[in-house]
Amino acid sequence: MIPVVNRLRRPVRVAVVGRAGVGRSSVETVLRQRGVHIAQSQAGVDPFDVCVLVIAETVKPEDLAVPRSSRRPVLIVLTKADLAGAGAGGPIAVARKRASAVAELAGVPVVPVVGLLATLGQGDLEHDLVEALRRFVTEPPNLTSVDAFVDDPHPVGGDVRARLLARLDRFGIAHAILALADGCDSARLGAHLAQIGNLDELVSALDAVTAPVRYRRVCEAIAELRSLAVQSNDSRLCGLLADDVTVLARMDAAVAVVEAAGLFVERGGTASAHLGRAVHWRRYGRGPVDALHRRCSADIVRGSLRLLAGMPRSST
Predict the structure, then answer these.
(1) Which of 8, 67, 306, 313 has its CA 20 to 30 A from that of 1?
(2) What residues contact 227, with CB distance under 8 A and at least 6 apart?
């Protein structure tokens, strides 16, 4: 059973690809910091489970070729969202609209991020940089251009301003000043800026894209264990396969898949909730859905009925 368990526990491998200069290294850094296993390319090998395609500003034909030809799930990351241009709601809102247009064109999810900010974590900014930002609250710098920010006279030294520009760019500096003016704690400033950079949405989108990978691994592991149980006639293994924990583990993985597709799954723990969930997903699985969602619906039905059967008689 050890090889089966090892395959099940193996981290989802993510390949980060994209043209030079689009911010691929920043996205890799963000994902590594969040515990994502970044696949290393090897000659003649396809060692990844999910592809993250990094683009900037506009999507090009060679970018679109990736999701259209990939045999793996693809997530597109639109970097440099802070440079998307002026518009209603600011550059991030403009970047979101651009991401929606690319998603419609590519047929895969697209998330806008500010790479420089998303890489930041709690306590990541050096003390002298934070102190410079605090001074900017009462003595605003000239943020009209990069040259003006660095070269115009200011009590904060030009070398410190240059370092700030390299770490945060003007967009990040402006938001850092606003956050400090609103009372943000210095230790939390990096984490706050990471949220501005859309870190949470990136992590959530990747989690959604990898949900089918995790579900298929669970299904494959259970199929292998079933084959071992038949070959070995091991009563303990047969008992494990029939146990609630196995049925519910498969249900949980199936729920993650359909929720990642934007569908709602009732999470109630009452008898009526379990029965209603089973009825709903049985009906869903009989509708015009693909094979993956049909399997997921069957697992949700099976798990819901198992939960219903385990309820005290007074509750049913």
Answers:
(1) 306
(2) none
Please report, as a single letter, which amino acid is at residue 140: P
Distance CA 274, CA 306 (A): 9
d(Cα 81, Cα 171) in Å, to the nearest integer? 10
Is 159 within 8 Å of 166 (Cβ atoms)? no
Percent of the chain at pLDDT exceeding 70: 96
Six token digits for residue 206? 């990747």
Is it the case that residue 9 has pLDDT exceeding 90?
no
What does the mean pLDDT of the chain come to?
A: 91
SS3 content of the chain, % helix, strand, coil (to 5): 65, 10, 30
Stretch (H or E) spanning 226: helix 199-232
Number of H helices, E strands in the chain: 14, 5
pLDDT at 44 over 60: no
| Domain segments of the chain as ranges | 2-114+198-202, 127-190, 207-315
**DSSP alpha helix (H) spans, 107-187:** 115-118, 127-138, 146-151, 158-181
Q: Is 2-114+198-202 CATH 3.40.50.300?
A: yes
- Contact predicate 12/50, CB 8 Å: yes
